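#struct-help
A.M.: can someone run this one for me? Single chain, 225 residues.
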Amino acid sequence: MCLRKILLVIASLALLTACQPKPVDFNKTMEESLARPLVSGTNHNKPFYKYYLPPNAGVKSGTQLASLIEVEKQQIMMNLKVSRVVASQHGDGEVNLVKPKNEKIVFSEDNRYLDQEDIERSVLMSVYEFKDNNYMVMIENDFIEMISLVNQANYDFMVEQMIMILRSVQVEERRVFEAYSNKEIVQDSTIQTDFFEHVVPEDGNLIDMYNQLHPDDKIEEQEVE
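D.P.: on it. Structure tokens below:
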């Protein structure tokens, strides 16, 4: 009888262990995603940039500057950092990505990659703790930022998708400059601070977050592509 109980306990522990998601290796996931083959071409166009989406992804809604992308029912917000593009066209020198400072951050690392035009780009990935064992992942290069709310089980997959899309983006820098050089633009450092410290809704709704930060470029929840 005792042996049977012991076997039952062992089986229960084994089942619980099998159901637990594997620990997230933030750095490994980033490096492996950057090492994957670069996609060729783009299949989605916006007024100021174009990018590639895999067959399992689509654009749920968007504006001239942003796209709410859905990958297997998981959402990614992608946004053009207009002020960075304008600054680069003003000849202000190389754009430096600054690692954020926040007590909820669990990972922040920068790296380099070659885009479709064989130009070397900087990339910064920052991961923040969110409620219910979820993570808020922010991945950005010189001109584009992407944000998604993920859990441990789908973390690797979603980061891989985000980096694949980011590496495919081609920005029409001159067109952005001509459209926005004479307009007042909120600095990206302020946006980054506000995003994680002031405007994150309890439900993590990405459209609500974006609209609070960009009142003049609000996204409506409707299919646009």
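A.M.: thanks! Confidence is low (pLDDT under 50) at residues 188-203.
D.P.: also worth noting: The CA atoms of residues 71 and 199 lie 24 Å apart.
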